[in-house]
Design goal:
This protein is mainly α. 73% of the residues lie in helices and 0% in strands. The chain has a domain at 44-120.
Length: 132
């Protein structure tokens, strides 16, 4: 290959002066942004979920309040029943004591009645025996 011919050819070209070349202004495409409506977070699926959760929380709170009221009523009923039971138990103990004392009293009265009956029977017999 003949490199001398290439050297002569490259020497015949003069360097280009770039400073005189004017750069064209770039053309930017005009992109218009479409107007997007403002999205209210309450109108989205997350807003629906939030409302459902709040609704569930309100219902749960109401149920808890109802259960608390029911528990108070049940506690009051329990206390009344306990008072009635305690009163009944006291009444039963008093009745047991009365029964014991009445049994003693009846036993003593029965003994006195038997002695009186024996005295009533033996009185005329003794009188007849003594008078003879």
């Amino acid at each position: 290959m003949d490199f001398d011919a290439l050297k002569n050819l490259s020497a015949s070209f003069k360097p280009i002066d770039i400073s005189r070349i004017a750069m064209p202004e770039p053309i930017y495409p005009k992109i218009e942004m479409p107007e997007l409506p403002i999205i209210d977070p309450e109108d989205t699926i997350m807003g629906d979920i939030k409302r459902k959760i709040e609704e569930q929380n309100n219902l749960t709170t109401q149920q808890i309040n109802i259960l608390v009221e029911q528990n108070k009523l049940l506690a009051d009923n329990y206390n009344k029943l306990k008072e009635m039971y305690d009163a009944q138990a006291e009444s039963y103990k008093a009745a047991q004591e009365d029964l014991k004392s009445s049994r003693r009293y009846n036993t003593i009265m029965m003994i006195i009645a038997a002695v009186a009956m024996i005295a009533a029977i033996t009185g005329p017999i003794v009188t007849i025996l003594v008078s003879q």
